[in-house]
Every structure is written in structure tokens, then in C-alpha cells.
Design a protein that fits this description.
The structure holds 2 protein chains of 2 kinds. By secondary structure, chain A is mostly beta strands. Chain A is 0% helix and 50% strand. In chain A, strands 2, 4, 5, 6, 9, 10 and 11 form a 7-stranded mixed sheet that branches. In chain A, a hairpin with a 7-residue loop joins strand 7 and strand 8. The radius of gyration of chain A is 14 Å and the shape is globular. Chain B is mainly beta. Chain B is built from no helices and 9 strands. Helix content of chain B is 0%, strand content 43%. Chain B is globular. The chains are: A mainly beta, B mainly beta. The interface between A and B is medium-sized, with 22 and 26 residues.
């Protein structure tokens, strides 16, 4: 059964760079059938799609975030990880960040399963 | 302001049916059959319950159904149960890869 687990920096200062890792177990990220996504949820608010990336490296980002966001995939052996970097964070970036598998070889709204999430707080 | 509009809350009694709407535009919901619904219990991870407008993932109850008409999608839950009480979010493809994906603001379902 595929499982995802987020890790990374949980407390940031304004203007810092957010760096998160999603480690996938129970399956390989090296597949054309799925892409790999990041989604966030500010406390008490709704969900926001950040972006997704295919193992090939093709990536798609939320237009409102794309100038600050980069996703990448670890192709070094069997690490089975993908990453999120977000620059110049502000308090508005405080949220639970989830990684998820996106099902389908192209654009999809089908995210399953999700990681447990990691709460990232931006505060001075 | 989310581009997909959902009612902030809906409620129903056990055994009844409810419908949650997700209003988009001709550029997203109206143009593509790429609409999903997610259920999120308090403090829990969102769970996929409907994809591609009306498809149910394995293990999801047939009491849950999805549909679409024009620029609006809907989630219907029949024979309400206490465990259905949760937040529900719709998600739709926004017309091109450069526009990405949109989520609705979420609907809180209360089982009375």
C-alpha cells in the first residue's frame, strides 16, 4: 500500500525558503501513470493546490505561486522522494502542507493517497 | 476568494439526503469532466470520495454520488449517517495546465 510522508522545516522566518521532502514507500515514483503533488491548507481554511511534477521532470504550478515555487524529483537511485521549495515566505504561507499522488498520466484532480501533512509556521 | 463556490454549510438529519453544490465557470467545471470531491474529518487528512465527476474510488459507499450540470457540479449523500459529518471540498481542472487546479472553499456538513 502506497504511503507518503512529509518532512522538512516547520518554523520559518519571513523571507526564508521553505523546503519540504515527501518520501514515498510501498511503490515507485518512477512511473508514467502518476504525478506527485503538493497541496496546502492554512489553519481553519480550505485547500490550495500548489503544483505537481512527473518523474520525467515536467512540472505544473499554481499560477499564483509559480514565481516562488519549485518542485523536483530525486532520481538518485532508490530514494523515492520528491521535493518542494518555496522562496520568500510570509505569514500567509503558514499552512499544513500535504504531499499526494496524482492519479493519471496527464492533468488530474484525483489525489490519492495523501501524506499526513506537515504544519509549517512562518513567524518573526 | 476561491474560484469554485460552495455553500459554507449544509445540514441534514440521519437518513435524509443532502446535496452540496460546486459552482464554477465555463472555463473549468463547464468544460471538463475533471471534478473531484474530498471529505475531511476534523484534524484528519482529506480523502478522495468522487473523481471524474461521478466515479467512486474503491471502498467508497454508493450513498455518495457526483454529478454535473453546466458550470456546476454536485455531491449528493443519501441516507445520512453521523460519520458523514465533515468538511467537503470540490476540485476542478481550470482549463489548461498553466491555469492549474482549483479547490472550492469547502462545505461543513452537519448531521443533526
Amino acid at each position: 500500500q502506497l504511503q507518503l510522508q512529509e518532512s522538512g522545516s516547520r518554523l520559518l522566518r519571513p523571507s526564508d525558503t521553505l523546503s519540504l521532502t515527501c518520501t514515498v514507500s510501498g511503490g515507485s515514483i518512477n512511473t508514467v501513470d502518476f504525478s506527485w503533488s503538493w497541496i496546502r491548507q492554512p489553519p481553519g481554511k480550505g485547500l490550495e493546490w500548489i503544483g505537481y511534477i512527473f518523474y520525467s521532470g515536467a512540472d505544473y504550478y499554481n499560477p499564483s505561486l509559480q514565481t516562488r515555487v519549485t518542485m523536483s524529483v530525486d532520481r538518485s537511485g532508490s530514494k523515492n522522494r520528491f521535493f518542494l521549495e518555496m522562496t520568500s515566505v510570509t505569514a500567509a504561507d503558514t499552512a499544513m502542507y500535504y504531499c499526494a499522488r496524482s492519479i493519471g498520466p496527464t492533468v488530474t484532480t484525483r489525489f490519492d493517497p495523501w501524506g499526513q501533512g506537515i504544519l509549517v509556521t512562518v513567524s518573526s | 476568494q476561491p474560484a469554485l463556490t460552495q455553500p459554507a454549510s449544509v445540514s441534514g438529519s440521519p437518513g435524509q439526503s443532502i446535496t452540496i453544490s460546486c459552482n464554477g465557470s465555463s472555463s473549468d467545471v463547464g468544460s471538463f469532466n475533471l471534478v473531484s470531491w474530498y471529505q475531511q474529518h476534523p484534524g484528519k487528512v482529506p480523502k478522495l470520495i468522487i473523481y471524474d465527476v461521478y466515479q467512486r474510488p474503491s471502498g467508497i459507499s454508493s450513498r455518495l454520488s457526483g454529478s454535473k450540470s453546466g458550470n456546476s457540479a454536485s455531491l449528493t449523500i443519501s441516507r445520512l449517517q453521523a460519520d458523514d459529518e465533515a468538511d467537503y471540498f470540490c476540485c476542478a481542472y481550470a482549463g489548461s495546465a498553466t491555469l492549474g487546479l482549483l479547490f472550492g472553499g469547502g462545505t461543513k456538513l452537519t448531521v443533526l
